[in-house]
Amino acid sequence: MGNASGANAEVEPAVPAPASPGLTYQHEQGAQRLRLLSFNAQVGIPSSRLHHYVTNSWKHVLPYKGRLGNLDRVARFISDFDIVGVQELDGGSLRSNFVDLASYLSERARFPHTYNRINRDLGQFAKHSLALFSRLEPQRVEMHRLPGPLPGRGAIEARYPMGDGQELVLFLLHLALGRRARRAQLDYVAERIRSERHAIVMGDLNCQQDSLEIRHLVARTGLMEPMSCPATYPSWDPRLVFDHILLTPDLHVSDMRVYNVALSDHLPVGIEIELPQSQALRSA
């Protein structure tokens, strides 16, 4: 495995139950299909009611026995995908019983390549992190510190070699709560991908697709969402589109959907892209 680092709620079965009908697409013979997923896991805490923010608040700072059981459900769900970005994990602290949650998910979902970035290290009390899980080995992975008034937001950049000699560049993000900080963070990403032909940006962006900061990112890079994305937050009554997968228009999307699974306070969003044989990704 490649590593770079740094009372139970009722859970619905982790089956593809889209919140939207998804896309229809004529599949190309011999094309490579890749399934990608972005998910905010809320440190393994399932939430299905607004009051859980109060009754479950202690689980963000102290260990509880249901955390790993819920992460087992998360692992079963994400195991069906090729590239997965997960936000709000823990790198091994008191609240996770000193278990690195990225390594835990990687082992149970059997991902051969996992890249974990600790965004905010509070010592034994919390190690806020995000992780990229991949079935294909990237050619290069880089950890980025994102700008902002409060330190601790970061990004993972992975570059995959393509059959035509190009690269697919993927950025996994978990953006700040403040608009000004989000704008600076997306400007940072835009500067690094604006000349890339094949690019994907995904994660919990903490803003909707019509926000000024996302519109500015799109204007600078040409990124687009594959369709009007259904709401992902909160998971029990989705009204806000906080979780996104944006990509350059040359990447052909054959499916896109939000999955109705009660594993966190966010719903996961996934896409399937098809690459012609000449552009198929290959491991480094």
State the end-to-end CA separation.
14 Å
Q: Quick one: overall form? A: globular
Number of extended strands: 11
CATH architecture: 4-Layer Sandwich
Q: In the CATH scheme, what's the topology name?
A: Deoxyribonuclease I, Chain A
Physical arrangement of strands within the biggest beta sheet: 3-4-2-1-11-10
Order of helices and strands: EHHEHEEEEEHEHEEE
Structural class: alpha+beta
* Uncertain spans: 5-25
Q: Supply Rg.
A: 18 Å
Q: Helical proportion?
A: 10-25%
Helical element count? Answer: 5
CATH homologous superfamily annotation: Endonuclease/exonuclease/phosphatase
Estimate the strand proportion.
Answer: 25-35%
The CATH top-level class label: Alpha Beta
The biggest sheet, with number of strands, parallel, antiparallel or mixed sense and barrel status, is: 6 strands, mixed
Mean pLDDT: 88
Describe the structure.
The structure is a single chain. With 284 residues, this protein is of the alpha+beta class. The chain has one domain: Deoxyribonuclease I, Chain A (4-Layer Sandwich), CATH 3.60.10. It is 18% helix and 29% strand. The chain has 5 helices and 11 strands; from the N terminus they run E-H-H-E-H-E-E-E-E-E-H-E-H-E-E-E. A 6-stranded mixed sheet has the order 3-4-2-1-11-10, covered by helices on one side. The protein has a 5-stranded mixed sheet with strand order 5-6-7-8-9, with no helix packed on it. A hairpin with an 8-residue loop joins strand 5 and strand 6. Helix 2 crosses helix 3 and helix 4 packs parallel to helix 5. The longest helix has 15 residues. It is globular and about 50 Å long. About 7% of the residues have low confidence.
